[in-house]
């Protein structure tokens, strides 16, 4: 009897501690005071001085929490127990969150800056009429090369990666969709294909690239390219812009035959609570001056037309990060695929990794 | 009565740890097994296991994982046994032991990043090679560097148990063996090694099992040239969100570990028993 009692007391104590812990965690992310905004975003994805400015102007304090992948963010919001007011998913993830009913529609009457955005980046397939999302940044997938090892201009297309002279010289970003995607693009296929035979062909083509592949890595790619460890890399434009800032030998190319065009948009997850602060923030970030400051700090391309006009000429006219219209026309946005199809991409990609 | 009281007090001491085990060891493993029976649509199925055992990719990955874990263990053992042996001969073994254990105080990721610096094109290792006239070599992203770094990380866990069993070895056995005319090699292979075998087995368990699922290193140091089951688990949980398949691979890994435990643990007992009846 005593033993049983002990066990029960023990259990109660543990439950109590867990409940206390959960409460503490919750209050740390979503301080319940009215003058806050809980922003859930990618690491280092907003100029901190803008947050101070926002607080000065509106009085709302911004709590920032970060994630490192769309999937991790999705899981955390879906599980609940959080109180994020705004988050920044990429295009296909917005589609997925919409389908999972995790997003709240925007109240357009409270938005003041939508006319600042380039119409090319509004009303896209992943969110018609921008019912749920406000553009934040956009970018591409492309090739970075080091002119110490590669003659400038000699890499223009995906197909160039397959050349024998790049044996053991190329680093790839560890992402199934992107690696399979550029293989598909090099064959002139859609980067959203779900045809198993086409995907198999893309894998076989990647297997032929294997001798040129030095490594398949993640964020470290940035560090390696800056340190001249590899001659060529396939990575996203945002990462590339950071690399280019630190190593003047690096160049970024978006193959004109097609590549991925991606968007990160601000959305309101269903966990949101501080609606006044949300709209104040969305309008604040839509102001050309603030968007331009953010774009200059982060180095990604801004979808805000008026903000782009405010950027220094050298950034504004940089074809690497603001490609010409002809290239943009060939870029493809990833569609949200069903879990089976995502699995198909990943299986093929895993086989390629095994092969290499 | 008093004895009974003491008994119940003793059981009370076990409560925290039992709860811990139930909540954070038993329950997760059960959940993992439970999850492995569901497909991506949340339907109950045995399909994940069928996929696993009929897919050459997963089977190759399993072979790869076991093979690399074996190589890492072998490399670690070859370095650790002589080290532990010499350690026992030194004047201040505790000090040397402390130096060997010291790297475990440093975070694994930091150590991996340090090796990236050492092995990179402009790193110390290549500077040395250039100085020797061999010229810079590609060190990072090779199978060699992967095994090297993994062995570096695992060595303390192998040295400790071996050192313990060697230091427990009575010098009188070795003296007796020499008195009876055994050569150095015979002394080692017939007396020292068999008597320190339990330490070696404990070391193998401590190294082989974690090595099966090393996955940060496969990317950071191996550049994904080495693909193990850990890579597949990460992918299923984070990208494809096929938790069922990820759990299935996890269950297979657990079973593999149990087999290793059983092989290294069980055969040891049989061995000594055989030795006794002889």
TrEMBL record, chain A:
CDD domains noted in UniProt: PBP2_PotD_PotF_like_2
First-listed, main subcellular location of the protein, grouped into a coarse class: periplasm
Alphabetical keyword list: Periplasm, Signal, Transport
Ranges annotated as spanning the membrane: none
Domain of life assignment: Bacteria
Cited Pfam families: SBP_bac_8
Cellular localisation: Periplasm
Listed name of the protein: ABC transporter substrate-binding protein
Organism per entry: Lactiplantibacillus brownii
Lineage, broadest ranks: Bacteria, Bacillati, Bacillota, Bacilli, Lactobacillales
UniProtKB/TrEMBL annotation, chain B:
Transmembrane intervals: 12-34, 66-88, 95-119, 139-163, 241-264
Domain of life according to the entry: Bacteria
PANTHER family assigned to the protein according to its UniProt record, in alphabetical order: INNER MEMBRANE ABC TRANSPORTER PERMEASE PROTEIN YDCU-RELATED, INNER MEMBRANE ABC TRANSPORTER PERMEASE PROTEIN YDCU-RELATED-RELATED
SUPFAM superfamilies, per database record: MetI-like
Organism the protein comes from: Lactiplantibacillus brownii
Membrane topology: Multi-pass membrane protein
Protein family (similarity comment): Belongs to the binding-protein-dependent transport system permease family. CysTW subfamily.
Keyword Transport: yes
Protein name, UniProt field: ABC transporter permease
Subcellular location: Cell membrane
Keywords: Cell membrane, Membrane, Transmembrane, Transmembrane helix, Transport
CDD domains tied to this protein: TM_PBP2
Domain (ABC transmembrane type-1): residue spans on this chain: 62-264
Coiled-coil region(s): none
